[in-house]
Amino acid sequence: MTQLNWQDIFIINRFSTSRWDSGFNNELYFQIIFIEDGSGRINLDGKVTAFKSRDIFIFNKNEVPQIKIHETTTFIIFKFTDLLFSSKVSLPDKQYWLRRSEFILNHPKRRFQEALKSIEERDLIWRILFFIRKENTNKEQYHLQIIANMVSTILSVLARNITETNPESSGYSQSKKKERIDEIYAYIRYNIYDSSMLKISVIAKHFHITSSTLSNYFKKETGNSLHNYILLYKLEIAKDRLLNSDFTVSQIALQLGFTDESHLTRIFKKYCESTPKQYKDAHVSADK
After folding, report:
1. Kind and range of the H or E run holding 186
2. Which of 3, 55, 177, 216 could form a disulfide with 35 if both were Cys (CB 3.0 to 4.6 A apart)?
3. Which PROSITE patterns does the protein's record reference (predicted)?
4. Does residue 133 belong to any structural domain of this protein?
């Protein structure tokens, strides 16, 4: 396995400026922008939100924020490149980063807004940031492993905050129903790589209801069966990895709990009307 330069995969930038330069990176997978101090506004596709000291924002590769700075601002930016997906890369906590980032970026509750609401968790993240910067500057023994572990903690805290974000709703009863469905969605997305945790009996036990009650409730509220939803979500991850990684179909099948490559290919063709290879080739050709 190839050991690439740390800077090829994960980049930490810290700078102060009174004028934002987006510096779009074609190979960027996603980025986290930490506002150390300063203030201003962020515009994303016409939606505007103000930022202030100690705010945190997450943007995927297709989201290019336009930032208007009101007072000189110090940014700390974590950039995760597409090489995070590479099967040739050996990186501490790589799989954990990959799974947590997919959870965050694909979560139905994700909105363009400041990523944290809890004061305690904001304090925790900024303390971790201090030690990441220290390790990255001093580069003492095991500093890469220590940084990787601390980044994993930050991603976990951000993922938990997305899960706990209260959805907008009209009416108490409707809100409680939406809350429960979102809890089921969150459980599935969190455990999507562990097939043993996705058995209907196990999910039902987690929510303290019977399997039949869970299946009927999910079908009634979403119009989709639980089994089908899990399958479709796995296929969305498979599509993303086909287009953004060099994982083989066989590797993706193994990662997502399919029996083998032929099993994934058969399911993929049934729901997507093409094989994984055809899907990848078609999108690669369209991008040229």
Report:
1. helix 172-190
2. 55
3. HTH_ARAC_FAMILY_1, HTH_ARAC_FAMILY_2
4. yes
